[in-house]
Amino acid sequence: MIRSLKRYAVNFLRVIFSRDIHHLLRDATSFYLSHRFIRVKYSQEQKKNCLQDAIIWLEKSINPDDGGFRTWYYAGGWTSSYPETSGYIIPTLLEYAQKQHRQDLIQRCIQTADWLIEIQKPTGGWQSGYIHENKKEVVFNTGQVIRGLYAIYKKTGEIKYLNPCIKACEWLCSIQEEDGSWQKHAFMNKKRVYESYVDHPLLLIALETGKKEFELAVRKNLHWILTQQLANGWFENCDNTIKHNDRPILHTIAYTLDGLIQCGILLNETKYIQSAQIAADRLLEIFNRNGWLNGRWNNEWKGSQAMICTGGAQIAIVWMRLFKYNQHAKYLEAAQKMNNQLCFIQKHHLDKSHPSFGAIPGSFPLWGRYEPFGFPNWATKYFADSIMMELEILK
User: Fold this and answer.
1) Is residue 1 over pLDDT 60?
2) I want to staple 14 with a disulfide (CB 3.0 to 4.6 A). Which of 8, 75, 212, 263 is the partner?
3) For 355, phi and psi rounded to 5 degrees?
4) Which pLDDT band holds residue 347 (cuts at 50, 70, 90)?
5) Residue 260 lies in a domain
6) What is the pTM of this model?
7) Exposure string (b/e) for 364-393, b if CB count within 10 Å is 16 or more?
8) Residue 72 dihedral angles phi and psi, to the nearest 5°
9) Does the CA dihedral 60-319-230-282 come out positive or negative?
10) CA–CA distances in Å: residue 13 to residues 27, 348, 366
11) What confidence tens digit (pLDDT) does each residue in 46-92 have?
């Protein structure tokens, strides 16, 4: 509690006594005049501009020392590189580079991949946290690095990017629990359903290499995840904390749903897609009724805390995946509305010389509990993914 209060005091003072105070005032105005936030609309052309600004910011977040991706905070500035998010930012930038014929951006992604190979642990996993923390290897983070290296492998055809993925998958299989969950080397050493977002890259490598043990590990984990779901779609053991596991954040809920959908499609198993759809539908109903989504959700789908922008972008992606799967217009309409809100939040920071320009904050308003007064690179990554997905569907 004392540490949290100190952090908020430092952040508020940092913003109030600087040129950034107008950012705080804008958030306060928009937050309390919520109708302005809820009803905002952006054209497809405007969304293309938002996407471009997001990509420019992601490029700016690249660490010149190692090629990884950083985060920016009002108090502290740029962080060191974050291996986990550096991994899954690679596919985002590759997709954009392909559409825009940006060979330079592809090369920057290759440089990031080379760095990720260099820092792989002897076991095959990748560390949690920022690189300067030098923490132990963790299941979830390892899965996200696999995403990036596999994307580079598919782009270049170079086996040096596939081999680390195979080694990582062998490690993941070796530490899996009998019931299909992961606990050893899981974040906080707790079983969590959002490891479905590890299942997807593990399954990609299984299909690429034909290694049946990788697919078996995926199926075991997916089976365990379904045992954690209540009839109303809510998942137990879904938060990335211990204290608040009774009301997980939208960020980890969306990870869970996205992993289930993507694995369900690859495996041609509708039960996983349907499982995700139950939860996605409940959130869609609430979003359409209230006009926005809270950051946390308890087992009765009652929300609390401020909006988590990362989760907003991720749930828009989930809705669009369901739209592509079943063509129900309600999913695309909700995703477009969410993307409108995220564009509005991004455009709060109009000073192009400011380090935050083009980025998405952790929370809206800025002082929300999730990554307060910060612009985590993963928020902008998922925002870019969501906008690209919408534009692709509507082209």
Assistant:
1) no
2) 75
3) -60, -20
4) confident
5) yes
6) 0.95
7) bbbbbbbbbbbbbbbbbbbbbbbbbbbeee
8) -120, 135
9) positive
10) 16, 20, 13
11) 999 999 999 999 999 999 999 999 999 988 899 999 999 999 999 99
Q: Is residue 20 part of a domain?
A: no
- Please indicate, yes or no, if residue 158 is contained in any of the structural domains: yes
Pure H helices in 101-245: 103-118, 139-156, 159-174, 196-209, 212-227
- For residue 175, give the DSSP letter: T
Query: How far is Cα 77 from Cα 147, in angstroms, rounded to an integer?
Result: 28
Cβ–Cβ < 8 Å for 259, 314: no
C-alpha 347/C-alpha 365 separation (Å) is 13
Q: Domain containing 122 — which CATH number?
A: 1.50.10.10
Rounded CA separation 35/15 (Å): 26
Beta-carbon-side half-sphere exposure of residue 44 (alpha carbons within 13 Å): 8
Which pLDDT belongs to residue 352? 81
Burial 115-142 (b: 16+ CB within 10 A, else e): bbbebbeebbbbbbbbbeeeeebbbbbb
- Say which range, 172-181, 239-248, 345-354, 386-395, has the weakest mean pLDDT: 345-354
User: With 80 as the cut, is the pLDDT of residue 109 above it?
Assistant: yes
- Domains contained in the chain, number: 1
Cα–Cα dist 389/174, whole Å? 35
Structure tokens at 13: 């003072």
- Please report where in the chains the tokens 């977040």 appear, as a residue: 61
pLDDT at residue 236, as a whole number: 98
Residue 27 covered by a domain:
no
